[in-house]
Amino acid sequence: MTDAVRLESLHKTYDGGVTALGGVTATFAAGSFTAVMGPSGSGKSTLLQCAAGLDRPTSGRVFIDGTELTAVKDTPMTKFRRRRVGFVFQDYNLLPALTVEQNVLLPLRLAGLRADRARCRSVLGQLGLGERLHDRPEKLSGGQRQRVAIGRALVTEPAVIFADEPTGALDLRSAREVLTLLRAVVHEHGRTVVMVTHDPTAAAYADSVLFLADGCLAGALSAPTADAVAERLAHLGEVAA
Ligand SMILES: Nc1ncnc2c1ncn2[C@@H]1O[C@H](COP(=O)(O)OP(=O)(O)O)[C@@H](O)[C@H]1O
Ligand SMILES: [Mg+2]
Fold first, then answer.
1. How distant, in Å, are the alpha carbons of 10, 78, 138, 173 from that of 93?
2. Counting runs of H as helices and runs of E as strands, what totals does the chain give?
3. CATH number, domain at 100?
4. Which residue's CA is minimally distant from atom 27 of ligand 1?
5. pTM score, whole prediction
6. Number of domains into which the chain is organized
7. Per-residue model confidence as pLDDT tens digits over 128-177
8. Atom number in ligand 1 closest to CA 39
9. Using a 6 Å CB cutoff, which residues line ligand 1?
10. Whose alpha carbon is nearest atom 16 of ligand 1?
């Protein structure tokens, strides 16, 4: 079976000279839910952005659903990303001038796909937003906005959805709703989710956890519990040393 995502020896050095990734190799199986954890500055966001084609690694290769993203130029990479990759940001990144429905339809329009309103409405219905189609984001709570963003990430039926601290701006209850939703996206809808989080409780919603320290992989944990994750995080420095 083709992995949803394969990362081969990803290195990233930013213009100022900071090395954010020091050679990361990892695979994410189709239909899996993986949390990526590590101290602040350990390269989590850089890893996600390079894997998603939002940024380019300095060297190394990224495969999404068997296609090498790093082998293609910017324009086809953007085109591929729009169809095959979903991204959920901590601060939602919804367009304030568009309605909920228009926000969710946008990736289809950008990808040159049919603006399938029936599918859009069905996705939003499943997310509990069936009554909010014509509202603008400013009328929604944080948790509702993040659910719209998840709908937007789902609508093109991508090979993978990357989420960078998707619950970082939410209260506990909304965070739990969003995490339950992400888990359902994987276990009921068969999607693949890779989620960065610094919260062990959030990580425990995933099937497994990858730990990063100083831009390198520093271990993994399957069937994580919040306690086991917190314990591992506390000792990450020692593992990496
Ligand atoms: N655009 C950038 N330009 C220069 N350095 C950056 C940039 N983005 C991140 N970094 C640096 O790269 C390292 C990893 O950052 P990041 O991937 O954001 O880590 P994390 O998400 O784990 O906190 C940090 O030292 C950070 O300061
Ligand atoms: Mg980050």
1. 26, 18, 12, 21
2. 9, 10
3. 3.40.50.300
4. 41
5. 0.96
6. 1
7. 999 999 999 999 999 999 999 999 999 999 999 999 999 999 999 999 99
8. 22
9. 14, 16, 18, 20, 38, 40-46
10. 43
